[in-house]
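Bumping my old thread because nobody answered last time. Still need a sequence for this structure:
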């Protein structure tokens, strides 16, 4: 450590960087730059490849066939947002409940086993979830869909003729909910375990029950972590391809009905289905759809970071 003297007579200690410190800081800086360059390269590639679709005559496009790009892609944007929103609504409370059970209710050994199972679920490939959803889960839901239609058919979402195969937007959303459940549960569990013990013990010492302690000490502390986990799960649901592709048919519809056999599909699914046979400006059209998905995903993550930053000043030490 060296000491330097300023013009005012004050001395400041300046730490001497060791070779290991310089290597680590340079590696970390390089990794951050690589991430930014990669993201910028992807954005530039998508934008450049999408320019012909936005400037050329739609009548000459093999996919648009005279339809404007925005009117063609809008049903797929709707299907992406609609299925992901349903999946998030279904998975979020279940993930929070499982995480609370593991962190504050389950015995230590049982909590460890459940934690390993949740982590293993996150490693299952999406195509496996898709095959399970299309071949096993969808037929199982047919009686349930008929019951919903008979008893709640007065609600527009459950009206009409229910699908005889069970392959509906609701089935796809439930499969997505199962897929995003592990990552949301794992993040919520870790955040709940970070709650300061002094806060929990203080609430219990004041006579609070375990649930009151969780409601007053754990959930407020973990709010930003819960939002982060939900947004990460939503990001995976927005970009999921194979699970939705195997469950839904590629129809460009805008409908809120959850039980009909005709359903909206998602941008990743339509890209996966159309890309093998696309050529020429058809490839550019699918890349432009990917650009729309990129923008939607970026907007969701930006919103998540904004929500988390609003809670950044909250700390367990406060």
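Sorry it took so long. Here it is:
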């Amino acid at each position: 450590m060296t000491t330097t003297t300023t013009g005012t007579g004050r001395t400041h200690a300046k730490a001497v960087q060791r070779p290991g410190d310089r290597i680590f800081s340079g590696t970390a800086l390089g990794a951050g730059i690589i991430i930014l360059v990669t993201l910028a390269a992807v954005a530039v590639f998508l934008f450049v490849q999408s320019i012909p679709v936005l400037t050329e005559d739609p009548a000459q496009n093999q996919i648009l066939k005279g339809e404007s790009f925005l009117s063609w892609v809008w049903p797929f944007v709707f299907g992406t947002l609609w299925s992901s929103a349903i999946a998030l609504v279904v998975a979020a409370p279940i993930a929070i409940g499982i995480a609370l059970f593991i962190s504050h209710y389950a015995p230590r050994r049982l909590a460890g086993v459940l934690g390993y199972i949740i982590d293993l679920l996150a490693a299952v490939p999406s195509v496996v979830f898709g095959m399970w959803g299309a071949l096993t889960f969808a037929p199982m839901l047919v009686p349930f869909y008929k019951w919903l239609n008979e008893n709640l058919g007065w609600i527009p979402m459950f009206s009409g003729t229910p699908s005889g195969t069970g392959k509906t937007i609701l089935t796809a959303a439930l499969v997505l909910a199962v897929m995003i459940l592990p990552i949301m549960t794992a993040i919520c569990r870790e955040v709940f375990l970070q709650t300061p013990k002094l806060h929990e013990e203080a609430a219990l010492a004041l006579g609070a029950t375990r649930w009151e302690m969780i409601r007053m000490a754990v959930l407020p502390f973990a709010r930003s972590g819960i939002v982060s986990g939900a947004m990460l799960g939503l990001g995976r649901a927005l970009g999921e391809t194979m699970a939705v592709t195997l469950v839904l048919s590629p129809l460009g519809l805008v409908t809120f009905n959850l039980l009909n056999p005709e359903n909206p599909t998602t941008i990743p699914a339509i890209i996966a289905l159309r890309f093998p046979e696309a050529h020429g400006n058809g490839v550019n059209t699918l890349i432009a759809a990917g650009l729309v998905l990129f923008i939607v995903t970026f907007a969701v993550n930006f919103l998540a970071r904004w929500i988390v930053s609003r809670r950044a000043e909250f700390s367990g030490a406060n």
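Residues 18-55 form one domain. Let me know if any region looks off to you.
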